[in-house]
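tl;dr need the bound structure. longer version: we got a ligand (2-acetamido-2-deoxy-beta-D-glucopyranose) that a collaborator sent over and nobodys looked at where it sits. i said id run it. heres the input, straight from their email, havent touched it
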Amino acid sequence: MHEKVIVILAVLFVLMGKAEFTNHTANVKCAELFKCSITNGVSMTCDTLQLITIPKCTENIEKLIIRSGVIERLYNFDFPQALNTLEILAVKNVYLKKIDKMTFENLKNLVDLDLSENFLRTIDPELLINNVHLERLNFSSNMIRKLVANQFPLPNLKTLDLSNCNLELVDETAFLNTTALQWLNLRTNKLRTLSFQVNATAILLNNNPWNCDCYVYWSIKQYTTDENFESSTCMDPERNQLRIWNDTNLSDTICEDEIRQNANKSKKDKNAREDNAPDLIITIYGYVFVALSALICMCCCCDKPKRKVSSCS
Ligand SMILES: *[C@@H]1O[C@H](CO)[C@@H](O)[C@H](O)[C@H]1NC(C)=O
Ligand SMILES: *[C@@H]1O[C@H](CO)[C@@H](O)[C@H](O)[C@H]1NC(C)=O
Ligand SMILES: *[C@@H]1O[C@H](CO)[C@@H](O)[C@H](O)[C@H]1NC(C)=O
Ligand SMILES: *[C@@H]1O[C@H](CO)[C@@H](O)[C@H](O)[C@H]1NC(C)=O
Ligand SMILES: *[C@@H]1O[C@H](CO)[C@@H](O)[C@H](O)[C@H]1NC(C)=O
Ligand SMILES: *[C@@H]1O[C@H](CO)[C@@H](O)[C@H](O)[C@H]1NC(C)=O
Ligand SMILES: *[C@@H]1O[C@H](CO)[C@@H](O)[C@H](O)[C@H]1NC(C)=O
């Protein structure tokens, strides 16, 4: 009996020991090789300018932060299966231009991804399709001109930073499957207008070259949680160029009037078109009538001499 207990205790002890003192020698050596720093054997940070590739000698690490170097492309094989423990990954400020479509496929436990301060031009909507646990995503300071439909199909994404990206176009359904989104930063882009479906409770939109007409004013006012959005500068239309929202005549009352008037105007136009319809019918009938009369007249005129001739003969 006692022997059994001792054996069980011994097994437990060995198991616990193994779990607690995992051998991270490989990671420590890897960090040394690439001149990165490492803490607890699972958290590696690389600040070295010479880095030109993702260090591939690591395994079972949880956090990898690369903050400088020249890594222009990420390849499909850069993050092997051994890194599926990774929860936090940053590859920022490394002149990154291209990411192969399957690059992050193995990172099933990724929660936080930072690709900011690079030269990315597009985001493939399928790039992160396997990273369903992603909660934070940072593309700030890239060159992404547009967001396409269903751009971020990530059910757990809460925080998305797309500030300073040269964004000109956001598809109306870009965030359709980003249903958990809470915080969205679109500041400092090239947006002139915006209309999309999103449930986020914080949407930052300041510092975009807005087209300051009533419709854009209203939609921005409805979306944004930026406190001082009225200090944004307008680039359009010409009459409002370089004014700030507050100096334009886009107060709520004026906009309400304008929108109502426009509604009335289009209604009137529609009514007018409908009113015109009977007129048109009358006009057509008129033309047909004139044409028929002319025809009958001509027939009569042509027939008369004939009849005369016949009556004469
Ligand atoms: C840890 O792993 C390395 C090889 O990766 C090995 O040389 C070393 O003996 C191991 N240390 C322990 C305590 O198991
Ligand atoms: C995203 O990255 C930028 C630049 O590295 C940083 O300033 C910003 O705070 C980050 N955003 C979030 C939400 O962490
Ligand atoms: C997005 O959500 C719709 C339903 O809302 C679903 O039919 C579609 O498959 C989803 N797309 C992706 C890429 O997850
Ligand atoms: C917004 O929330 C509603 C209700 O939770 C949900 O049905 C809808 O799909 C969400 N829309 C978007 C764009 O996230
Ligand atoms: C814009 O006007 C509102 C109310 O008229 C005012 O509260 C706000 O301080 C003004 N903002 C700026 C930046 O002038
Ligand atoms: C605002 O409207 C008033 C009259 O409604 C007009 O006198 C003024 O010039 C307008 N200001 C601007 C900046 O368009
Ligand atoms: C628009 O039309 C409604 C009735 O259809 C009228 O009550 C309203 O005064 C009109 N508004 C303007 C601004 O002409």
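gonna send this back to them w/ a short note. The pocket of 2-acetamido-2-deoxy-beta-D-glucopyranose (ligand 4) is lined by residues 175-176, 179, 197-199 (CB under 6 Å).
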